User: Fold these one by one.
Assistant:
Number 1:
Amino acid sequence: QGLYSSVVCPGLVMSNMTYRILPVFLWKLLMPIMWLVSGSPAWFWAVTHVTASDVWLFKQKPEYLDSLVKYHSCTSGLGKCYVEPRKMDVDEDTAEKLYQKLLELEEQ
């Protein structure tokens, strides 16, 4: 039917939605650790940065994308946004079986 599905990882963004997961004081304690893990200061975790994979994916021709890849929004230490494709840990046979099961469910 011409429908395509892709998997994206938007990355980490500090927002009022994020603060609901844990108390604010705990996030403030975790920020230095997150900075060390990500390699970029917290101010790089803006909405424009974490949506890089969504915007990039939207601009691609879906028939040329690898269906077994997850596209990650990433930010370099200097604040440059980029998309990194990472192979998902699923083999093509399992993916095909899942797709066939979804088709069966759709018919029901």
Number 2:
Amino acid sequence: FKESNGPTNSYAAISQVDRLQSEPESIRKWREEQKERLEQLDANSRKQEAEWKEKAIKELEEWYARQDENLQKTKASNRAAEEAFVNDAEEIFPGTEWERVAQLCDFNPKSSKQAKDVSRMRSVLISLKQAPLVR
């Protein structure tokens, strides 16, 4: 009577048992190495994420500083322009109306940042400046 499910030689049976035991050992070693690799990758990614957060915070602070500086410059220039406008408004002389209008209007179509087409109004103002209406 022969075994149909396994090897007939006893040495072959022992070697098969040895192979079954050695395979889980190699798998165990692989799992440990894989676990160490994953832990190292996680540590590296956490470290990199912390560096990115620090860099982002630093850049955000620099951006806020630049914004504040630009805001202060804009406020100063607006105050100076307002003061000049108020001073010019006090010096009203007959016949200087069109010079004042020309100061307030931008007659250069390329430097205008408006989305609307104001070329007709610009041409009307220029023609009125050149030939004012007589009452």
